[in-house]
Structures are given as C-alpha cells and as structure tokens.
Amino acid sequence: MSLLSRRRLMIAATGLVAVAAAPRLVFAQGPAAPPDGPFKLPPLPYPATALQPHIDARTMEIHHGKHHQAYVTAMNNFTKDHPKLAEIPVPDLLARLGDVPEAIRTGVRNNLGGHANHSMFWQIMGPDGGKPAGEVLAAIDRDLGGMEKFQSDFNAAGGRQFGSGWVFVTVTKDGKLAIEARPNQDTPLMDGKRVLLGNDVWEHAYYLNYQNRRADYLKAWWNTVNWTKVGERYAAAKAGTLGI
Ligand code: MN3
What we know:
Elements: H1 3-14, H2 23-28, H3 57-81, H4 90-95, H5 102-123, H6 134-144, H7 147-160, E1 165-171, E2 177-183, E3 194-200, H8 207-210, H9 214-221, H10 227-239
Antiparallel strand pairs: 1-2, 1-3
Manganese (III) ion (MN3) binds at residues 63, 67, 118, 200, 202, 204-205.
C-alpha cells in the first residue's frame, strides 16, 4: 500500500475527514487475509490498550495489525519466487542485502527492515516498564551521558529525522551504546550492528493522538519502555545471542 493510501486509511479511520464511504467500509476493503508463509507477525506481547494513555489502542491495532502485517505479507510474497529468503536468519539477510536479487532488493530492504524494526519495537515496550537498572544503566551513564542527556539526545535525533524513520540505540558485543537515526525502515542490522532499543518516528506511530506533534510523542514514549526487556537485550548482546 502506498504511503498516500495509508494516510487516507488512517485519516478515514479517525473520522477526521468526512468521506462518502463509512470508515468501517474502508477497513473492510483492506488487505486480504495474509497468505501463509514463513514470515509471521509476532503477536503483541500485551493488549493493544496496555500503553494508554501514551499510545492509544487504535494506533497500536493499526500499526501492528495493518502496517507490520503488510511487511510480513510482502516478505511472504517475495518468498514465493525466492524461497531462500526465508532460510537465512533475518539479521544476516539484512546485513547481506547486496546479495539479494536486484529486482526485489529495495522491497526486501523496506519490508524485512520493517519486520525487524517492528518486531523489536513491540518487544521493548510494555506497561509498567520500570526503570533502567544494573549493567544497562551503567552503560547509559558511561556511553550516553546519563539518562537525562540520553533521552534528550535520543529525542533530538528522532526529531531531526526527516519524514519516516527510526531512532535507535545500538549495542556492541562489548556492551558499548550509541544513538543512531535511520530513514524509512532501515536498521543498523544492515551494517551488521545490533539494536538495543528503538522508536518509530513515522507518523503512523503517533498520528491519531499526536498529529504533527512528534516531539510530544517522543517525550511520552519513554513511559512505554520495558526496561526489564531492554536489560535482557543488553545481556543478550554481550553474550552474542541478540537477534532482531
Ligand atoms: Mn511503524
């Protein structure tokens, strides 16, 4: 689905614009049931309402069930002609996009990148996420100047990202952290790096509640971070077992 038609879908769904077709009808015409395939939409690890009031349930439902599903469906469609795509671990495939046939390379970049980014995103959020502690807090203090500076720099990087994209914290096998922003569905996995956490700054992640106020979304989003999960990812990165 094009960006434009996604935007129309979202606007129609919110009832912000009076349209002849009822919003429900627009949704009824949405993507058909996903074809069976090797790529699967991971279930949300919490109810869609769990991140309210910071992220509303409707945004979560559309973002997970429509946008993320579309990346998964696209990858399954690619595997019909290119079954090997499903045999390579996702981080390895993203790091080897140059080996993907040129005709589908951009599609794989966008859709597998989107699948990886969103799979990470659902996982590192949750209700009652607690506070950073232990080794990951020590690394934030050491590499990112402490929580206050980290959040301020992360939000600034997310605010600077023009159009759609992500702001990430990467983690090395030595446990070193860095902030990186990427356009569209690109991910540091494409450079063979690992992602500790990341935030989606495409408008579809926040538009229903925040409209154009990305800065407000970036600020509120910290209330959704599941620091227990982030701590587990940090330990996995140091153990060399962190995937997407
Ligand atoms: Mn998204």
